[in-house]
Description:
- The chain has helices at about 45-60, 75-85, 115-125, 140-145; strands spanning about 1-5, 10-25, 30-35, 65-70, 85-100, 100-110.
- By secondary structure, the protein is an alpha+beta fold.
- It has a single domain, classed as Aminopeptidase (3-Layer(aba) Sandwich).
- The chain has a six-stranded mixed β-sheet with strand order 1-2-3-4-6-5, covered by helices on one side.
Amino acid sequence: xxFAIIDLASQRAxxxxxxxxxxxxxxxxxxxxxxxxxxxxxxxAGTEAMYLMMRRAFDELGYRRYEWKCDSxxxxxxxxxxxxxxxxxxxxxQAWVRHGRNRDNAWFSxxxxxxxxxxxxxxxxxxxxxxxxTGGQRRRLGVFMARTPRESLL
Length: 154
């Protein structure tokens, strides 16, 4: 299930993301095929798009597990997952063959018990008061994530 990410100011598509591996019986859903244009990369809007997808999965659709997978060599994707509050679960070795090479997949997840503290951190970071008049963040998301009790993220 693909979603276009639209820049509200320009009304132009600046990225996309999808839900995949949707398993309602197991309460598990994955976010993937995330592609951000340079206009969306490293912006509050990019973080907000991921937050909105998480909120829909947990709060509206009632999923208990939200997954993120990436090529283990894809450092930007790995970093994004951790920045957004996903926990690293491990490597699925030789999970795919891509472009003639074995690809190891790094698996990450957020589970329903972790979601309230992650949601709170994301909402505090996304608050307009956290941004100056030029759109620069006053405090990094990591500051808000660090304030959440680590035990609640385990």
